Amino acid sequence: MSLMAFLSADQNSIFTMALVLMLMIAVLEGITMLIGMGVSEMLETLLPDYEFDISTPDTPQSTLSKLLGWINFGKVPVLIILVCFLAAFSVVGYTLQYLVEALSSHLLPQFLAVPTAFVIALPFVRGFTNVVQKIMPRDESSALTQESFIGALATITLGTATKNAPAEAKYTDQHGQTHYFMVQPQSEEETFNQGQEVLLTKASSNGFYAIKNSNTSL
User: What's the CA gap between 187 and 150, in Å, rounded?
Assistant: First the structure.
């Protein structure tokens, strides 16, 4: 099978789409850098809100929460995770199909190839984001400790946060560094929506607890 026939095969269409989307994001990143905008912020604005609950270990929402935490969602910017996943998913998918085609002269149908590539790609995403997470706070001498964030104002960037259902937030420190982490309300009665400013009160196992910012002078 020729390279073009392999890439354009129906069984590989979703991997091709993932690769094209990754390249489009790279181009968009270059364009927005020139005009002073951030793709990550644009992405966070365009993505729909969602909620996930980590308080019940046997629910689909909890499984999603654990998966997102496992790939360092909230500790690494969403755009980096997305690009890493698209790259890993497409490369793993193509590699899988190439090996199957070499052995059997046939390609796997999508209903087998897609979930297999998805599962195999996730450890690569985790490994890469682990490296990014370690590099990001240490590549500047002005890196801050988690405790130093207490009392700071953060902005909810993605999702809706309720008690035991954190959402992504960001905080820009005095050195101009932007930090991404998960935030949830201290109180069960509170809800934090996208774009809302919150006051960080204490660290949690996977981010921070916060309260609504009632002081507009902060």
Answer: 17
